[in-house]
Amino acid sequence: QQQVKQSPQSLIVQKGGIPIINCAYENTAFDYFPWYQQFPGKGPALLIAIRPDVSEKKEGRFTISFNKSAKQFSLHIMDSQPGDSATYFCAASETGANNLFFGTGTRLTVIP
Amino acid sequence: DAGITQSPRHKVTETGTPVTLRCHQTENHRYMYWYRQDPGHGLRLIHYSYGVKDTDKGEVSDGYSVSRSKTEDFLLTLESATSSQTSVYFCAISESAGLAKNIQYFGAGTRLSVL
Hints:
The structure holds 2 protein chains of 2 kinds. Chain A is an all-beta fold. Chain A contains no helices and 11 strands. Chain A has strands at residues 4-7, 10-14, 20-25, 33-38, 45-50, 56-59, 62-67, 72-77, 86-92, 101-102, 106-111. In chain A, strands 2, 4, 5, 9, 10 and 11 form a 6-stranded mixed sheet that branches. In chain A, strand 6 (56-59) and strand 7 form a beta hairpin. Chain A is globular, with a radius of gyration of 13 Å. By secondary structure, chain B is mostly beta strands. Chain B has strands at 4-7, 10-13, 19-25, 31-38, 42-51, 54-57, 64-70, 73-78, 87-94, 105-106, 110-114. In chain B, strands 2, 4, 5, 6, 9, 10 and 11 form a 7-stranded mixed sheet that branches. A 4-stranded antiparallel sheet of chain B has the order 1-3-8-7, with no helix packed on it. Chain B starts with a strand and ends with a strand. The mean pLDDT of chain B is 93. The interface between A and B is medium-sized, with 25 and 28 residues.
């Protein structure tokens, strides 16, 4: 049973486009929502994270939008670049909990 | 990769043989985790440790055991490897206090093939 549902599975955009990756969860106890970026042959690396007290968080070209009532959150990549081509994972957990529940991943390809 | 070394990076083994994967950290973080990554499943937690000799199960712990005799080392053992354990295994670490506990840093992974 997937605690966090992620879509789409793969995404291809042109350079400069704005890919959007969506995640949904059911457990209302979740209060920490990170996004991880993974390049081939590497481990996932924390990209950006949000807590439910805000509806949006921006770090550079990466933005998380959070909808608490819908139990959904999404990652937007502004002005996407070929170097952003990677697999992106959303995740969720409760503060202080040991288990971080991951989505199934989205493989993003940015075409030059 | 945040001071985390996984070894070996690649391993091919036969069904029924024991396998041990090692995770070594230089960050002195209290928490250590083992995940497996499979297509269509994302990353799933196998076991974690919250201190020396303190470990607990994750969501996919069957067929795996772990040990932590030193802060810096966390071992994952497959007592009798099966083909369903073919996967990429990641070690992660996190600090112990408050909100920081949720921020996990990952190693580069070990690709294991069980034939």
